[in-house]
Specification:
It comes from Elysia marginata. GO terms for molecular function: nucleic acid binding. This is Histone-lysine n-methyltransferase setmar-like protein. The chain is an alpha+beta fold. It has one domain. It has helices spanning 10-17, 21-31, 48-68, 70-74, and strands spanning 34-37, 40-42, 84-86, 97-100, 107-109, 114-116. A two-stranded antiparallel sheet has the order 1-4. Helix 1 (10-17) packs across helix 2. The protein is rod-shaped and about 75 Å long. The mean pLDDT is 77.
Length: 117
C-alpha cells in the first residue's frame, strides 16, 4: 500500500487491513524501516545563469553609483501600487511521504506569491 501511495495515512491502512493503528506504525517503522518525512524547504531555486545575471546587474548599478553619486540615486523612481498575491501550494504536512531511512532527503522550493495588479 505504501509503495502504491507514499502519502497514505496510517489510519487509512489500519481501516483497510482492519488492524490497530499501533500495529500499523510498528510494521511501517520497525519492520519495514520506513519513516514519514516532508521535503526540506529551501529559499528559491537559483540557477547559475540567474546568479550571474544578478551579479552583472549589481555590478552595473554600483558602477553607475560610483560615477554619478547621489544624482544616480535621485533618478530611481519608486511608487505605491496595490498588488494582489496569489498562489496555490501544498504545505509541508501535505507533502509528507514515507521513505526509507537511507533515502536521500528531497528538497521543496518555497513557492512565492506571484504578484498581479
Amino acid at each position: 500500500m505504501i509503495l502504491g501511495n507514499r502519502r497514505i495515512k496510517q489510519k487509512d491502512i489500519a481501516k483497510e487491513l482492519e488492524i490497530s493503528r499501533e500495529r500499523v506504525q510498528h510494521t511501517i517503522t520497525d519492520i519495514l524501516g520506513y519513516r514519514k518525512v516532508s521535503a526540506r524547504w529551501v529559499p528559491r531555486m537559483m540557477t547559475d545563469e540567474i546568479k550571474m545575471q544578478g551579479n552583472t546587474i549589481c555590478a552595473e548599478l554600483l558602477k553607475h553609483y560610483e560615477e554619478e553619486g547621489e544624482e544616480f540615486i535621485q533618478l530611481i523612481v519608486t511608487g505605491d501600487e496595490s498588488w494582489e498575491h496569489h498562489y496555490d501550494h501544498e504545505n509541508k504536512r501535505q507533502s509528507m511521504k514515507y521513505r526509507y531511512k537511507s533515502s536521500p532527503s528531497t528538497r521543496k522550493f518555497k513557492v512565492f506569491a506571484s504578484p498581479e495588479k
